[in-house]
Amino acid sequence: MNKKAWVGTLGVLCLLGLWLLVGCSKKETPAEQPAAPAAAQPAATPIDPNTVASVSGTVKFDGAAPKAQKIDMSQDPACKGTNTAETVVVDGGNVANVFVYVKDGLGNRTFDVPTQAAVIDQQGCRYHPHVLGVMAGQTVQIKNEDQTTHNIHPTPKDNREWNESQPPAAAPIEKNFAREEIMLPVKCNQHPWMKMYVNVVKSPFYAVTGPDGKYEIKGLPPGDYTLAFVHEKLGEQDQKVTLAAKDSKTVDTSFKQ
Amino acid sequence: MHRTKEPALKAVATPYNRALHRFAVFTASATFVLIVAGALVTSNDAGLSVPDWPTSFGYLIKVPHWVGGTRFEWSHRMIAGFVATFTVVLAVWTWLAERRRWLRILALAAFGTVLAQAVLGGLTVLFYQPPAVSAAHAALAQTFFCIAVAIALFTGRRWVEEVPRVELDTRRPSLITLTLLSIFVLYVQLILGAMFRHKGMSWWPHVLHAAIVTIVLTWTAVRAVSLYSKIEAVRRPAVILLSLLMAQLCLGFMAFLTRVAWGHDAVQPELPMVISTVAHVAVGALLLATAAVLAIQVWRHVPVAFEEPVPSGQRKPVAA
Ligand code: HEM
After folding, report:
1. Axis crossing angle, helix B175-197 with helix B204-227, rounded to the nearest 10
2. Which of A4, A176, B1, B58 is most buried, judged by most C-beta within 10 A?
3. Taking all residues of chain A, what is their mean pLDDT, rounded to a whole number?
4. Residue among A5, A21, A189 whose CB faces B45 most closely
5. Which atom of ligand 1 is nearest the CA belonging to B288?
């Protein structure tokens, strides 16, 4: 009788465990996607270099800029220097870290994916840059220059999620993102304040505003475009612009809290 | 009305085993420490700071670079390893030394729960914290805690040796129904809180449901204290339940302020947020375990008086 109870209970437990495993893994397995779609890349649509135009401008902040919060990094002595939150960075009314890209107007054009890697550097327990633009399929190289272990954990909506740790002096991690995705958050679970955003687009026509709020997108074929200005906190603003051959236009915008 | 009856849950006379009881209390206490350690992991967003599982940075027990989120995640894993080991010992010991068959099965169930809990913990790391899996890990943690507390209670001297003072319950809903309802609403509250904490749901269902929890728990505790205050085994957990509820409401309010109202854009980690949310999780676990103890004691001391099956023609209405 006792032996029977033993075997029965164990059997039920094993079944339960198995059911849990199967049930959970089935539901939660992220959709796999090819790591590098570069092989199947169609040839880029040619652009006449003699007609290309450019657009540039400044992103401003309306009203009083929020004060940057100081970050307490004392939980890891290897995190040296001062650090302030980069959620909204405004200097003299100019907004940094705005991702500007051609959202619409390029039609079915395709573009070569740059062979050069985009670099994310972890230094002073912060990401450099805070906002990065890359093309889908472009290599992203992640370096750790700190004397501490970081983990790099993108939390995408449309791309594959991954999480890898990188001890001090480890080789750079190389990855790419296969699908277009704007403001894809990347974080470090060792240092919860560390956060940055990767923007994955299909064209090379993008820029990130610097501390002076300025951006410039060059080499655009003439056409009617929608420019999107995206900020991690302040949201998105779209603006239309028509570029004739060799035009050089200015498109400014401003954000409010 | 005051009739004594053969105590429930005590079919086999069992000698008090002091060492086993002490070990059960120790395991339950270690589980509470583990719940606090787990809450620290979530509040510090450190769940994925160690990306691999069941190894930690490739090793089973090598102490890693002691910084940042790893400190929380790695200690949580190690304490969990200890608690799992204690549970194996407890299960084997109970199996060998205990005469009550149901208690031996409960100890085995504790072992099964700890295994399932380890699997859920692993899945949440390997699948990058899907809210449902992380919330299930949080809920099963407290379920395990309740089982550990129950084993400690059942192996206690009082439980084994006392002749329970029994009063029949004629009120409807009966006190045992109320205590079971308390466990149910607390469990729902736990799941709602865990789903919010793990970003699978908004905060408002948890906060709204807190009103229901407050009503049900107060009703239960007030009924227990007002009618059965002479039964210490019932009065004590009922008073503790009510006090913990008050504390939990305050802590919930603080967790809400630091996490939702002020903490929305805060640069983590924010100490007040970590302290208030961890305390809220810990007191939540104590509340659930207290409700379980109350239900067990009510089952033992305040059994429901059933109506005699009387032919329907002669049936008289019974006062509620
Ligand atoms: C009525 C009794 C209550 C109980 C038993 C309770 C229980 C819990 C539990 C167990 C958790 C954590 C779940 C986990 O382990 O992940 C939680 C989370 C939470 N609860 Fe409650 N709660 C109660 C009332 C409240 C109230 C009144 C509020 C707000 C006004 C509140 C706000 C929160 C918040 C904000 C969290 C998430 C904490 C975080 O983000 O880390 N709770 N609650």
Report:
1. 160
2. A176
3. 85
4. A189
5. 5
Tokens for B83? 């608690």
- Residue A233, chain B, CB below 8 Å: the answer is yes
Domains of chain B are 17-162 (no CATH), 166-306 (1.20.1440)
DSSP codes of every residue in A130-164: SEEEEETT--EEEEE-SSS-EEEEE--SSS----E
pLDDT in tens, A56-83: 999 999 988 888 888 888 888 889 877 8
Give exposure, A172-204, as e/b (b: 16+ Cβ within 10 Å): ebebbbbbbbbbbebbbbbbbbbbbbbbbbbbb
CB hemisphere CA count around A163 (13 angstroms): 21
- Cα of B283 from ligand 1 centre, angstroms: 10
Residue A151 in contact with partner chain B when CB distance is under 8 A: yes
ipTM reported for the complex, 2 dp: 0.76
Which tokens go with B202?
């908004």
CA angle A154–A156–A162, rounded 5-degree value: 45
Distance CA B15, CA B97 (A): 10
CB atoms within 10 A of CB A242: 12
CA A203/CA A97 separation, integer angstroms: 19
Provide the residue count of chain A.
257
Q: Where are the beta strands (DSSP E) in A9-166?
A: 53-61, 90-91, 94-95, 99-104, 118-123, 126-128, 131-135, 140-144, 150-154, 164-166
The model's pTM is 0.84
What domains sit in chain A, N to C, each tagged with a CATH number? 48-110+205-257 (2.60.40.1120), 112-202 (2.60.40.420)
- B137 Cβ inside 6 Å of ligand 1: no
Judging by DSSP bridges, how do beta strands A195-201 and A150-154 pair with one another?
unpaired
Q: Which residues of B touch A70 (CB under 8 A)?
A: 267
